[in-house]
Specification:
Its cofactor is pyridoxal 5'-phosphate. With 809 residues, the chain is of the alpha/beta class. Helices cover 50% and strands 15% of the residues. The strands form five sheets. Strands 1, 2, 5, 6, 9, 10, 11, 12, 16 and 17 form a ten-stranded mixed sheet that branches. A six-stranded parallel sheet has the order 20-19-18-21-22-23, sandwiched between helices. Strands 13-15-14 form a three-stranded antiparallel sheet. Helix 25 links the parallel strand 19 and strand 20. Helix 6 packs across helix 35, helix 12 packs antiparallel against helix 13 and helix 23 crosses helix 34.
Length: 809
């Protein structure tokens, strides 16, 4: 792109005038952002068009990544970075009296995800585009995100996340590419032309409208596509007859019913109607996505018999696993293929990533609900299940094994099983996670399909999580070892020889301190709380769930607080603890944990007797853009999930890449992080997998034993329910019950002593600045292997069999 500062200034002023008929002095920050975003999208559009043209002309194999979540965050900064025009844009706007940073802050985080699943999908899209893999995303364009979190009197309060209130400057609505998705009705089998066919009747037809967002590769002319689907009615938005009768609600009832499909991420499924809506959502975007892929494929005049040679469909967790049955339906009913031919193409096309061993996340759908909503799809799953069960029985001659492995059993359809049977690859997302899947959770399937299972450890894009989020550190790395690491993140290891260099250590330390001062200002501006940049910034930011053990963290803080109360002269480095997390609206225990964190924060932050040695802050409405601020300034990264429960994690990698020291259990990708940096550069505590599995299997854990034998724990747990936290004794009775009466499912009490010892070690290490900085630099140096570029290279080579494509402009 032949772009100069003068041209950019001229283009920006014209865009502002054309969109809003405003000059710069008369325009708002919002209009400036929207004008700049439209301009940046315009700059990328030629590359976007050329990318699609060249993919189609050259008949390259393309990947379609299906996911319920794409947590892409804000796009202005990353798009400028990937186009290579950040500095140019910053200087041009400065000449016009505009601060680029202020413009970036106007953008809303896209409400398209919740946690690690969506953030991983976003990183994967970025990496595919940046290393030249023809890969696109497919999901839902939610009108509202999960929810916007507010903390009121210490409680989480959910309000709608209206992220589209100012529109979305990055998307292009493509009504001409709409797809019809069908729900309900009945299926009539007919025999004609020596072939059994299936015809729908009395179904509900919903229009899926695609909205395309450019995914810009890093300085390489590649622009892939994130296609998100929005649900609209086909021909009856408004019932005039009902309106004329005065039944105003009924007049728009159908419209709102259809629009609810793409209205909100993860509707509450504790009720039947919420469950049905979730199933509708999943089928809606999968059906629309696969129909769209087939339509585009056929425009290339390639035979459907070779579909799997040119198309890879990857399903991110179980949510899109209905893709197996939907692709079969389209190949059988629309393309007229035989079962065997359709099955071969389907299994060769589809690959599945498992993200959890948690039972609650391995989706199951009640047969009657599924059958009523998706009658033809259910027929196909029944046939898949029947054929698979016959195979299992032939191999083992064991009816119990057949029952255990059946896709349909006990009144439910097991979607993870459907994904495994209907794909050619099943991967876990960390070495430990994959081992557990193969040897325990999915051992029957591993025995049956040993060649399908493989590991692909998660990764993060270093462009957003280092270059964009921490430019001072990024610039120092480039000054020290050159810029090869930007295209090859494994080259970060080249800073390792500088880990003991006092001058380099001082530079890294100063950058961290500067980031901490910036965040302290952010905290003061947004929360009115003064925090000490010289304290240890100890951070746990992730989804709120019992297995992630935010309760263990708060117990560790209370233990330190009580030690300070007992001994005011205790020598510790001051600590500032940060929490950020959303709890699912129906997850009562998680919401009570948020209340506990805020209650403890109120008590400790207002206790002058400890001389501000501890401060706690719960960061409201944790998001990608907030993560970009907190991660670069963290000293300590809390990765303390119960061993065997966290599939991988990606936050752990982001903190590592920014030089934080990880306090961790040997869970998920923490294991591989420890292997990379060595025992001396990470602080490990808690049970290992064999002990956890043994306790679970033999049921020999009794939390009351630890409560009764450890005076520190007894004090902390008693104080939950005796009013000493300045709340009624009943407030945390359910947390107390969960830990003692319900036997502490995730071993908080068991790991408590080990955790406290690990935190004491953190305090001791931090006092030795040279050692701490050496550890910090070692973490940065070894983090390159966790770049999602590496992960995508492995997916491309081992699973998708795709080749890199250079886009020529």
């Amino acid at each position: 792109m032949n772009l100069t500062k003068e041209r950019l200034k001229s283009d920006f002023k014209k865009k502002l005038m054309n969109l809003y008929a405003e000059s710069i002095p008369d325009s708002s920050k919002l209009h400036q952002y929207l004008a700049l975003g439209a301009l940046v999208k315009e700059y990328a559009s030629e590359k976007w068009m050329d990318t699609n043209i060249q993919y189609n002309k050259r008949h390259v194999k393309q990947v379609y990544y299906f996911s319920m979540e794409f947590l892409i965050g804000r796009l202005l900064g990353s798009n400028l970075l990937n186009l290579g025009i950040t500095s140019l844009c910053k200087d041009a706007l400065k000449d016009l009296g505009i601060d680029l940073h202020e413009i970036e802050e106007v953008e809303n985080d896209a409400g398209l995800g919740n946690g690690g699943l969506g953030r991983l999908a976003a990183c994967f899209l970025d990496s595919m585009a940046s290393i030249g893999i023809p890969g696109h995303g497919c999901g839902i364009r939610y009108d509202y995100g999960l929810f916007e979190q507010r903390i009121v009197d210490g409680y989480q309060v959910e309000i709608p996340d209206n992220w589209l209130k100012n529109g979305n400057v990055w998307e292009v609505k493509k009504e001409d590419k709409a797809i019809v998705v069908k729900f309900g009705g009945k299926v009539i089998p007919t025999f004609e032309n020596n072939r059994l066919s299936f015809n729908y009747q009395d179904y509900e037809a919903v229009l899926a409208i695609p909205y395309d967002t450019p995914i810009i590769g890093y300085k390489n002319n590649t622009v892939n596509t994130l296609r998100l689907w929005s649900a609209e009615t086909i021909d009856k938005d408004f019932d005039l007859e009902s309106f004329s009768r005065g039944d105003y609600t009924k007049a728009v009832e159908h419209k709102y019913s259809v629009q609810s499909i793409s209205q909100v991420l993860y509707p509450d499924d504790t009720r039947v109607d919420g469950k049905i809506l979730r199933l509708k959502q999943q089928y809606f975007f999968v059906s629309a996505g696969i129909q769209s892929i087939i339509r585009r494929y056929k425009k290339g005049n390639l035979p459907m018999s070779r579909f799997d040679e040119f198309i890879a469909i990857h399903i991110n967790d179980t949510h899109p696993s209905i893709a197996v049955a939907e692709l079969m339906r389209l190949l059988l009913d629309e393309e007229g293929m035989s079962w065997d031919e359709a099955w071969k193409i389907t299994t060769n096309t589809i690959a599945y990533t498992n993200h959890t061993i948690m039972n609650e996340a391995l989706e199951k759908w009640p047969i009657e609900m599924f059958k009523k909503l998706l009658p033809r799809t259910f027929m196909i799953i029944e046939e898949i299940d029947k054929r698979f069960c016959n195979e299992v029985n032939e191999k083992y001659n064991d009816l119990q094994k057949v029952h255990d492995m059946a896709i349909i059993s006990n009144g439910n359809i097991k979607m993870a099983y459907l994904a495994i049977v209907g794909s050619h690859s099943v991967n876990g997302v960390a070495r430990l996670h994959t081992e557990i899947l193969k040897n325990r959770e999915l051992s029957n399937f591993y025995d049956f399909y040993p060649d399908k299972f493989n590991n692909k450890t998660n990764g993060i894009t270093h462009r957003r999580w280092l270059i964009k989020s921490n430019p001072k550190l990024s610039n120092l790395i480039t000054e020290t070892i050159g810029n090869d690491w930007i295209h090859n993140p494994n080259k970060l290891i080249d800073i390792l020889p500088y880990s003991k260099n006092p001058v380099f250590q001082k530079k890294i330390y100063d950058i961290k301190q500067n980031n901490k001062m910036d965040f302290a200002k952010h905290v003061k501006d947004h929360y009115g709380i003064v925090i000490d940049p010289n304290s240890i910034f100890d951070v746990q930011v992730k989804r709120l769930h019992a297995y992630k053990r935010q309760v263990l963290n708060i117990f560790g803080i209370l233990d330190l607080y009580y030690r300070l109360k007992d001994n005011p002269n205790l020598e510790i480095t001051p600590r500032t603890y940060f929490f950020g997390a959303k709890a699912a609206p129906g997850y009562y225990l998680a919401k009570q944990t948020i209340k506990l964190i805020n209650t403890v924060a109120a008590k400790i932050n207002n206790d002058s007797s400890i001389n501000n040695k501890i401060k706690i802050l719960f960061l409201e409405n944790y998001s990608v853009s907030l993560a970009e601020k907190i991660i670069p300034c963290a000293d300590v990264s809390e990765q303390i999930s119960t061993t065997t429960k966290e599939a991988s994690g990606t936050g752990n990698m982001k903190f590592m890449m920014n030089g934080a020291i990880t306090i961790a259990t040997l869970d998920g990708a923490n294991v591989e992080m420890k292997d990379a940096v060595g025992n001396d550069n990470i602080v490990i505590f808690g049970m290992e997998k064999d002990e956890v599995m043994s306790l679970e299997k033999n049921k020999t854990y009794h939390s009351s034993d630890y409560y009764n034998s450890d005076s520190r724990l007894k004090r902390i747990i008693d104080n939950l329910v005796n009013g000493s936290l300045n709340v009624p004794p009943s407030e945390f009775a359910d947390i107390h019950k969960y830990l003692i009466a319900n036997n502490d499912e995730y071993f908080v009490l068991k790991d408590f002593d080990s955790y406290v010892q690990a935190q004491n070690r953190i305090d001791k290490l931090y006092k030795d600045r040279a050692t701490w900085m050496q550890m910090s630099i070692s973490n940065i140096a070894h983090s390159g292997i966790f770049s999602s570029d590496n992960t995508i290279e492995q997916y491309s080579k081992d699973i998708w069999k795709t080749k890199k494509v250079d886009i020529n402009i």
